[in-house]
TrEMBL record:
Organism whose genome encodes this protein: Gluconacetobacter sacchari
Name by which UniProt lists this protein: IS1380 family transposase
Ranges for domain Transposase DDE: 3-346
Source species, domain of life: Bacteria
Coiled-coil stretches: none
């Protein structure tokens, strides 16, 4: 409650909704509905049906600032049906959906909260991108079977800067993992630069985001990037000598060994230009484990080893943020029938 009051999160989130209900008939305003739903999730109650009991809970009522009902015969807080109508809102109020939410305003709010958390503009920020599976068990809109994850699922796109969530885009799973990344990155970068025009921005992601469209956009918009690069026979040949040296060292020491090679690389047909690639030639567990990254950062600025080990490998911390969203905050509880309602939940 104190944290929410300090940053005004639920108040600001509630302002992203339009309430066309008759004011004199409203018992639970949008702000109290949003606060009740958010606090319930934070307390471990992810299902709307839980609120038929929680509507009488004094702790949740205290958080919402509603210890008593406004009129006789009502509970201090809303039940599942009222909260469900909040989630099922459209872009504009309709006859049967009187509460609507503005997805554009909600998307902007996440970036504003991140910007407001800083007293001064940092010199550089790193935006981490990743996609993950969100298994679904019903016949929700946008349901598709994903061969890699071996289940019916959504494929949400997450963008973080450190611990701050900047975007969570719900997507069907019958798409490329990087689909929509350029649009979301362009929106976020533009929003950040309106407040911090001189900040340097680095995009970091695994090989699923190593796409010409995204790299070309970065190069055209003064944004640096560091992406994983899927290995192939041509790339493996580039680090063959380093792999031999790593194998010899591993045989001599009995421990994993690695070497790095820095080179310019151009694909046969998918890239518009040659780019800097760093190859990690690692021998571990008695086998070769070559890995590659592509970046806009120059060798003069950062050498191959620290680029890979200190900067690229740090992207794994973002996966912990996704786990927190899904396991602690129930972001994968996308059991509503429509994509729009599930996007609001996410």
């Amino acid at each position: 409650g104190a944290t929410d009051r300090a940053i005004g999160l639920t108040e600001r989130f509630a302002r992203c909704f339009t309430d066309a209900r008759a004011p004199h008939l409203v018992e639970h305003d949008v702000r109290s509905l949003v606060l009740q739903r958010v606090a319930g999730i934070a307390l471990g109650y992810e299902d709307l049906v839980d609120h038929d009991h929680l509507r009488h809970d004094p702790v949740l009522a205290a958080l919402a600032g509603r210890l008593d009902a406004g009129r006789a015969g009502c509970a201090p807080l809303a039940g599942k049906s009222t909260l469900n109508r909040l989630e099922l809102g459209r872009g504009e109020p309709t006859r049967y959906h009187r509460i609507a939410h503005d997805t554009t305003a909600i998307e902007a709010l996440f970036v504003d909260v991140f910007l407001d958390a800083h007293r001064a503009a940092p010199g550089q920020i790193v935006l981490d991108l990743d996609a993950t599976d969100d298994p679904i068990h019903g016949h929700q809109e946008g349901r598709f079977f994903h061969g890699y994850y071996d289940c019916y699922c959504y494929l949400p796109l997450y963008i973080f800067c450190g611990r701050h969530l900047l975007a969570s885009r719900l997507r069907p799973s019958n798409i490329d993992g990087a689909a929509g990344a350029v649009e979301d990155v362009a929106r976020i970068v533009g929003h950040i630069r309106r407040r911090w025009p001189r900040v340097r921005i680095l995009l970091r992601a695994d090989g699923g985001f190593c796409r010409e469209t995204l790299m070309a956009w970065c190069e055209a918009n003064r944004v640096d990037f560091l992406f994983g690069l899927a290995r192939n026979a041509r790339l493996a040949a580039e680090v063959a000598g380093e792999l031999e040296a790593a194998e010899a060292e591993s045989a001599r020491t009995g421990r994993p060994a690695r070497r790095y090679r820095d080179f310019r690389w151009l694909t046969r047909d998918s890239w518009s230009r040659a780019r800097r690639v760093v190859g990690k030639a690692e021998w571990t567990g008695g086998a070769a484990n070559p890995r590659f990254v592509v970046t806009s950062l120059s060798p003069a600025e950062i050498k191959a080893r620290p680029l890979y080990e200190a900067i690229y490998c740090a992207r794994g911390e973002m996966e912990n943020r996704i786990k927190e969203c899904q396991f602690d905050l129930f972001a994968d509880r996308t059991s509503s029938g429509t994509m729009r309602a599930n996007q609001l939940r996410l």
